[in-house]
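for the writeup, i need someone to sanity check this before i put it in the appendix. the sequnce is what the collaborator sent (i think, or maybe the updated version? ugh). structure was predicted straight from it, no edits. if anything looks off just tell me and ill rerun, i have time this weekend
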Amino acid sequence: MQRWKRTLALPVTMVAIALGFLIALQAQTQKNVSAAEQIGEQRMTQMKAVLINSQEQNAQLQKRHQELSERLDLARKQVGTDPQLLVHLKQLQMLNGTQAVEGPGIMISIDDRNKKVAFPLNTNDIARMVNILKLAGAEAISINDQRIVGSTAIVLSGNSTILVNQVPINRSEGIPYEISAIGNQETLLDYFSELEAVALKQRGMTVSIVRKALSIPSYKGSYTFTHAESSSAPEP
């Protein structure tokens, strides 16, 4: 009898150990499940808080957008009705070249196709003439109907094609260069005659300058700002 008991003792012990292990494992598993559920609930709560916050921010942005849109509409209406704002806007358009202008000035015609001309007109010559006219107080300048503005580039394309505002200004027929400048006619005439015309004629070019009422077209390009932006800093 005792031998039989000893024979069963080991299996029973093993079964008891295994049963205890399973019970402990089940308890740990239940604990892990509860912890996971708790973490899931916490994450869900956090997600709900983030969602609510995002919805509140979105509502604020929509309100701000509505306010700015209303202010913009009001500003547009004021520009259209306020004479002073309208005049100011027109002046800004004239300054940046997006508005066609007319007024007294001088018309300069330059022909460099004479066989005596060893060195025809180049980009440096044109840039220098533009600067001389600006120095003389020209309020608007064009070269072969291309308005000169702050972003105007005068460059050489290929061997002989001169581009102004990325548009070729060389002509195969007629006078190749016509420069119009609006401003004080006497001052413009004196500056250009003394500082530029004499040197051009010495190089064999034909130069004529006449006083006349001019009409200068608007700048046909567009202004694109990639890096520059309006500064919020106060002016010194």
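Helices lie at 2-81, 83-95, 123-135, 185-202. Residues 14 and 154 are 98 Å apart (CA to CA).
thx in advance!!
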